[in-house]
Amino acid sequence: MARRTSGRAGGRSGSPLTPYLFLAPYLVLFVTFVAIPAVLGLWISLHNWDYMLDNRPFVGLQNYAALFDETSVYYPDFWNGMKNTLIFTVASVPFLVVLPLLLALLLNQKFPGRTFFRAMFFAPYVLGVAVIGLMWRYLLDSNFGMVNDILGTNIAWTTSQPWAWVSLVFVTVWWTLGFNAIIYLAGLGDIPVEQYEAASLDGAGWWGKFVNVTIPGLRPVLVFIMVTTVLASANMFGQSYLITQGGPTNSTETAIMEILDLGLSRYQMGAAAAESYLLALFLGLVSIVNFWLMRDKDAAAQNKLLKQQRKGTGTRQPDDAPATPASLEVSR
């Protein structure tokens, strides 16, 4: 006797609302703390939202236009913050991408105490930015800081340029190096050992294995680290606020610091909201460029070829089906 299967096709049973019940807690938090504030912030940016005013008149895109008007009071401070944010991002991201990769390759080797060193390099990341900022502010102090004593120098690390930028980049790299290294280590663990063995049989050396096996195997991890590192660097606030306090002469005052000062100190919430959305737009464009540059060009070409062959032969496959040699052969 044939066994009767209950539920919908494919042997599935249960209410179609079950997945949404599991998602509900996250959706509630997302809507409450992300979606609603985002919409409210956009609404605020369209008004002259000054806490000192009795009413908050609608001004449309005037707050955004003021950011591109050289005669506006908001123009110099905002673009100075954007310039400083760009300097810090360009200076720190290469170190935060390359150095953790080299560290991960080293810690991926088998040697005594490997677990201990992994934990030691990751340890600074568990500390909050307030702890890191205050600690390095005193260590880098030009009068009684230990850094000058150890190096035998007399450098004003936090009150002169370019040493203020050197200090901020160094502290940030020291603080977050271990996190990116752990992500790289997880990616290295997912690369099959057989690929390295096959590369050895083909006569590849360590550089050949690194270029043809390690880097392609780490592509998804590289995309993740590039995007998250750029976003984190562009949103840098705590290090500059605590270590250099935006100085000297506002040369390390980032865009986030300017937005905070404009909105909470000068009560210009409408203009501050407009600045934050303009910054978010720039970061979104940078993220899209990163994804485009780090995309798998071979897979994209195969998918394009597969779609062309489907149109020519009438073969229908799921749109998200990956292009593989086997699928290409079938479509022929």
TrEMBL record:
InterPro entries from the UniProt entry: ABC_transporter_permease (IPR051393), MetI-like (IPR000515), MetI-like_sf (IPR035906)
Region annotation Disordered: where it falls in the sequence: 305-332
The keyword Lyase is assigned to this record: no
Annotated localization: Cell membrane
TM region(s), chain numbering: 20-44, 86-107, 119-139, 163-186, 221-243, 276-294
Record has ATP-binding as a keyword: no
Primary localization class, coarse: membrane
GO cellular component, one term: plasma membrane
Membrane disposition: Multi-pass membrane protein
Domain (ABC transmembrane type-1) ranges: 82-290
GO BP annotation list: transmembrane transport
Keywords: Cell membrane, Membrane, Transmembrane, Transmembrane helix, Transport
Family classification: Belongs to the binding-protein-dependent transport system permease family.
Name of the protein: Carbohydrate ABC transporter membrane protein 1, CUT1 family
Organism annotation: Ornithinimicrobium cerasi
